[in-house]
Amino acid sequence: MKNILLLIGFSLISVFAFPQWTWQNPLPQGNTLQSVYFTDANTGFAVGECGTIIKTIDGGSAWTVLQSGITEILFSVYFTDTNTGYIAGVVGTILKTLDAGITWTELSSGTTDDLYSVFFPDATTGYAVGKNGTIVKTINGGTSWTVLTSIITLEPLYSAYFTDVSTGFVVGSDGTIIKTTNGGTTWNELPSGTYEALNSVYFTEASTGYTVGTGIILKTTDGGTSWTDVFSSQDVWLYSVYFTDVNTGYAAGRDVGVEKIILKTTDGGSSWTAFSGGTDNWLNSVYFTDANTGYAVGGAGAILKTIDGGTTWTPFPGI
Is 75 left (phi over 0), alpha (psi -120 to 50) or beta? Predict the structure, then answer.
């Protein structure tokens, strides 16, 4: 096994170290993708390992590898408009583009902790969360960032979602859910009822939200005061959740037996249907541009697309 891993590692080094080699399969590249985000029906971005940033302008038919300027893992991508976007990654990395990804500038985040999620509730106010309970905030479009006081100091925080500029939720390991109602000045820990890792959080309304994690999906209808277990299976690990309306949502991750899995609900989380997707690789992020069209990305550069509301998923050619 060690020899196989060394061979794979040498192959990857060879591809990136010597320009005479051109990546052939999977297309457009083979690094694991951690996050996907679309600014309109046709234009989307995905980020991942080795500083990978890829972009499509035709609804996923073709993807172009962009230059990030770094080689570390990028975990999360978020755009505030068609041109302005942010990426969070390891050792406090935050990148910003003002030209729809053509160029990226590295910002000073004020931390060296890994940042796993970035979210902007408006054009100038943004938050990033990560390792050791780290939370950083900007109020000037990323020009400067302030490290906020967090009530979580040792455990990682994996995902942030704000329902308005002041009210936000952050989830993390050991069932952690924290909430702020004053723009991050103070945080309150909410009872999740679980000690499983929570990897992603999404709100469909100010009071109604979902969080997914290791073998679990939780729902709140009272702004996070209480959470109900609406799905549980120790064989399913979920890394991303996204809703297209108050009733219809998707969760993506891996099934211990078959690697990839996508779950769908059409009744606000009361029941979930499993779709296997079109790849054997686990899925880290799911995003929909409308009620029917969605994308999921994950291991080994996997990119999937659906145009029928998740009934079928087609892998990008070459996977």
Answer: alpha
Determine the Cα–Cα distance for residues 155 and 177; give it in Å rounded to an integer: 12
What is the set of domains in the chain, with CATH numbers?
191-319 (2.130.10.10)
Sequence-distant contacts of 119-124: CB under 8 A, at least 24 apart: 119/78, 119/160, 119/161, 119/162, 119/168, 120/78, 120/80, 120/86, 121/162, 121/163, 121/164, 121/165, 121/168, 122/80, 122/165, 123/80, 123/81, 123/84
129 within 8 A of 157, measured Cβ to Cβ: yes
Contact of 42 with 59, CB cutoff 8 Å = yes
Q: Exposed/middle/buried for 175, CB within 10 Å: 0-12, 13-18, 19+?
A: buried
List pLDDT tens digits, range 282-311: 999 999 999 999 999 999 999 999 999 999
* Phi, psi values for residue 316, rounded to 5°: -60, 140
Judge contact between 318 and 61, C-beta under 8 A: no
Name 275's bridge partners.
262
DSSP state of 123: S
**What's the pLDDT tens digit per position in 161-210?**
999 999 999 999 999 999 999 999 999 999 999 999 999 999 999 999 99
Q: Three-state SS across 128-170?
A: EEEHHHCEEEECCCCCCCEECCCCCCCCCEEEEEECCCCCEEE
What value does the CA radius of gyration of the chain take, rounded to a whole number of Å?
A: 19
Closest CA relative to residue 318, chosen from 31, 24, 80, 10: 24
Residues 239 and 113: their CA atoms lie apart, in Å, by: 20
Q: In the chain, where does DSSP find H-type helix?
A: 2-17
Question: Of 163, 280, 301, 296, nearest to 239 (Cα)?
Answer: 296
Return d(Cα 59, Cα 305) in angstroms, integer: 9
